[in-house]
Amino acid sequence: MKNFKVKDLVITSLFIALVYVFTWIVKIQLPFAPNGGLIHLGNVPFFLAAIFFDKRIGMTAGALGMGLFDLTSGWVMWSPMTVISALIMGYILNEFNYKDLKLKNLLISFVLATIVKVLVYYVGEIFILSSFVTPLASIPGNIIQIAVSSVIVLVLLKPMERVFKNI
């Protein structure tokens, strides 16, 4: 935790809470996935944290915020997949965008984050559901979840850049 300041701890805690709340409050249950599937907006503060702050902040905010949601809302078996995918997605978003915020980098990182989400959940659901076919039903929901959040982040990017620049 070298060079991790109190300010970083406060920002990380704030974003963990934002990710959790956005996941909890703004969610849509999908009727076609094995266990309903879930589209939520917790990725919006997660992506913003990963893009604008140190990778430890973004990765931790996504992994803990959404992981805690899974643990407290009946999605316990999905929690390991959530934590693993959020850590990798946060790393990717930060690596592509933290020092050099360009539309091309954002789009590439959103596509890579989507691929990570789909692959991690597919593999995890193979074990949970004991099937190679059934988890395929979750893929559209995972893609929609990341796509919706990515569009919202693109809309919020410039106003948030001004806000976060002063932190």
TrEMBL record:
InterPro entries, alphabetized: ECF_substrate-spec-like
One Pfam family from the record: ECF-ribofla_trS
Keyword Transferase: no
Domain of life: Bacteria
An example Gene Ontology CC term for this record: membrane
Keywords (A to Z) from UniProt: Membrane, Transmembrane, Transmembrane helix
Record field: transmembrane: 6-25, 73-93, 105-124, 136-157
Family matches, as Gene3D superfamilies: 1.10.1760.20
PANTHER family, alphabetized: UPF0397 PROTEIN BC_2624-RELATED, UPF0397 PROTEIN SPR0429
The protein, known as: ECF transporter S component
The species this protein was found in: Peptoniphilus porci
